[in-house]
Structures are given as structure tokens and as C-alpha cells.
Specification:
about 240 residues, alpha/beta, Beta-carbonic Anhydrase, Chain A, 6-stranded mixed sheet, 6 strands, about 15% strand, globular
Length: about 240
């Protein structure tokens, strides 16, 4: 806590005073975020840092494994956040961002015993499709490759879950909402985005690629697998 308390003091005495006018203007107007950014609760993932955005730009939703329950599965804060962001704040973009070395994904695909963590075990039920897809398609991969594949597949599964929410479904139908699937590699800073026509996650190339919530087609052959192989030292 000492580091946190010191940081609060330095913000109030050093950072805030020269930017007081900026924060006063920020507080005076209603927020109008560019996007709803859904990502994992992992403390190593900082949305504002990797997107170089400012306060007020991102409406954030963070959960273990960037999991979003399908509509009606539970009455949850996640559903309320999604609904509020679209219906009240008028968000037109949703980013679902998974990341490397995700503890939730590791526990999910390695079928760790979670009997002592009943809430976590119940939460993972909303990613059961991810676990079964990985078991069906990627058992032949190394553990590092399988983790990347699972993280990317989970992004797509959660995009599908999002599409069951009424406001999301309605805005997708009218073309007033875009959903993007991202994979963030912590060690390299690389961000891959899901390309629907190609059916894989590809590096940013200056073009924004909105993806409908559809699963990957066929075998994973994209940059994510190449990245995993490089991490695993197996090359192509």
C-alpha cells in the first residue's frame, strides 16, 4: 500500500495542479467514450497505455479472462455495463481484448481443480465453449501454442456471447455498432486483431478490422501460432 499511497500524494501535489483546468472541463461535461474496452482483470494489461488514450476515451469492463456471460445467463454487472455503454453513452465500438500469459485461460484449458474456488469455477462456465474448442482442435499443439490458440478462441467466444445481448444484437443488425477482437502480447507489445475474411488474428497494418462475432475457420495458421512457436523455440 505504501507505493499506492505515495502515488496518490504525488498525483495530487505534482500531476494534478498543472492540469487542473483539463480535469475541471472533463468533470463538467458528460462522458462520451470512443469505445467499450473489455479485457482481463490482469494487472499487467493497461488499456489506456496500449491505446495511448486519455481519460474519458475508454469505458472499461474488466473481468477474469475477459469473460462476458451471455444475456440472461445471470443478472450481472457485466450485462448492465454493456447495456449502459450502448443505450446511454452511445458507444459505437466494442473491443474484446485477450492477452498472453493469461492465468484464467491457463486454468481453464488445463482443467485445474477449482473446488476451493467455487466462484471462479462457476464463472468459467461462461467460457466452456472455449475449453471444448481447444480440446477438439488444438490438443496436438505444444502448451505455449495451445495457450495462444485458447486465448484467441476465447475472444471469439466472448464476442459471440456479446451478440446475445439485446442492445448489441440490435445495433449490429443496423450497422451502428462494430466489435473488434484483439490479442495483446505483454512481452512484445504486439497487438493482433481478428480479420474475419482471413479467419485469423493478424498484426495491425494501419487498417481497422471490425469482426462479426464468428468463430475462427479451420486450423489456426496465423500470426498467433507463429508467435507461440517462436516463444516455444520451435520455429515454423
Amino acid at each position: 500500500m505504501e507505493k499506492i499511497l505515495r502515488g496518490v500524494h504525488e498525483f495530487q501535489t505534482q500531476d494534478f495542479p498543472p492540469q487542473r483546468e483539463y480535469y475541471e472541463k472533463l468533470a463538467a461535461k458528460q462522458q462520451k467514450p470512443i469505445a467499450l474496452f473489455i479485457t482481463c482483470s490482469d494487472s499487467r494489461v493497461i488499456p489506456h497505455q496500449i491505446t495511448r488514450t486519455e481519460p474519458g476515451d475508454l469505458f472499461q469492463l474488466r473481468t477474469a479472462g475477459n469473460i462476458i456471460p451471455p444475456y440472461g445467463a445471470v443478472v450481472s454487472g457485466e450485462s448492465a455495463t454493456v447495456e449502459y455503454s450502448i443505450a446511454v453513452l452511445g458507444v459505437k465500438n466494442i473491443i474484446v481484448c485477450g492477452h498472453s500469459q493469461c492465468g484464467a485461460i491457463k486454468a481453464l484449458i488445463e482443467a485445474e481443480n477449482l473446488d476451493e474456488l467455487p466462484a471462479v469455477k462457476s464463472w468459467f462456465a461462461h467460457a466452456e465453449s472455449t475449453r471444448r474448442i481447444v480440446r477438439q482442435k488444438y490438443e496436438h499443439l505444444s502448451s505455449a501454442e495451445r495457450a495462444v490458440a485458447a486465448t484467441e478462441e476465447n475472444v471469439l467466444v466472448q464476442m459471440n456471447n456479446l451478440s446475445t445481448h439485446p442492445y448489441v444484437a440490435a445495433r449490429l443488425a443496423t450497422g451502428d455498432l462494430n466489435i473488434y477482437g484483439w490479442y495483446y502480447d505483454i512481452a512484445t507489445g504486439q497487438i493482433l486483431q481478428y480479420d474475419q475474411p482471413e479467419g485469423e488474428f493478424l498484426p495491425f497494418d494501419g487498417e481497422v478490422r471490425a469482426a462479426a462475432p464468428l468463430p475462427l475457420r479451420g486450423r489456426m495458421t496465423g500470426n498467433g501460432l507463429r508467435l507461440a512457436k517462436a516463444m516455444n523455440g520451435s520455429g515454423e
